[in-house]
Amino acid sequence: MIFDIVQKNNLSRTGILHTCKGDLPTPFFMPDATRASVRGLTVEQLKTVGVLPMVVNTYHLYLQPGMDFMQKVGGVHAFMQWDGPLLSDSGGYQVYSLIHKNAKMGEITEEGAIFKSVLDGSRHLLTPEKAIQIQFDLGVDMMVLLDDPRPNNSSQDVFAAAVRRTVRWAQRCRDEFDRQIVARGLTDATRPLLFGVVQGGPFFDLRQECAEGLIAVGCDGYSFGGRHVDMEGNFMEEMIAKTASYIPEGAPRFALGIGTPEDIVRCHNVGWDMFDCVIPTREGRHGRLFIWEDGVKSGNTFYSTINIGNAQYREDFTPIDPTCDCYTCTTYTRAYIQHLFRVKEPLGAQMAALHNLRYFMRLMEDLRRV
Fold first, then answer.
1. Which of 89, 141, 147, 273 is the catalytic position?
2. If we measure between CA atoms, which residue out of 26, 22, 29, 28 comes closest to residue 4?
3. Where is the domain boundary, 256, 277, 298?
């Protein structure tokens, strides 16, 4: 079994995801190690706050340092000195974002996505087969199929075409995945897990069609693709819940890119198991810090935020969060972290990011106790 459900509470559940790098308790949150690092933090620091898996960015690592280099160093685990599980995206979202922002940067065809490198202008073709090959070369433990995401303001016809292409590409990804397993001599115990991406935008019937198509292809887990908020920025709660219901009960469900604490809790409550986002580290670098409040089980507000750059913290000699056990909170005061930000000392951003990651890990620990 890839995924064992340990306990259910209405639609939410806790479980164990089995990977070739070890078992992961769910739900879990993955910080984004975009270029084989979580910006400003060492792997030792990440372990101290309880980080389990991380997400590496296929698109960025493909462009730099490149796959020839990655094969020479023995894959991304060896390169970044991380011995825990890693998940890679397909690279598709970054390519499509690039193309959607500037049509001169490439185009999407049935064969794949053609794009120009932002580094040197060179042209590349990302096919479903190549997306899988790259992720195998990275040596990750969980990988994502290449899909065709579309902006939320697209028409239903555009979304329908993208869903059908996503399913066609999924079959090509699956075929290449199976070829790579044989070619590399992998077994069920040593192979990576494969996640499909359920697209369909704001249309329930298309989400269901996409999910059913991916299930027919055969994946280990399934992801929520595209934006989880509507054009007004409202959380698409019914769509999130319905999409989860389209995914088999016994499969892990990955809420791609969903990362505010309240959105994580909302998704967990309707059956999602895995989360990733840049929010904890990015917000930390900008001085926005998460503070633990009543806790998830109380049903009340479970966090607040402070902007450590505000003058009110200049002589505040209390910890960032008195309830937190991270290095930042057990070592420094708000006044000191505020001083570091004021003088633009990088240590401030590092300590803030470290604390925020610990907050997110505590949130996951609390959800696993619900």
1. 89
2. 26
3. 277
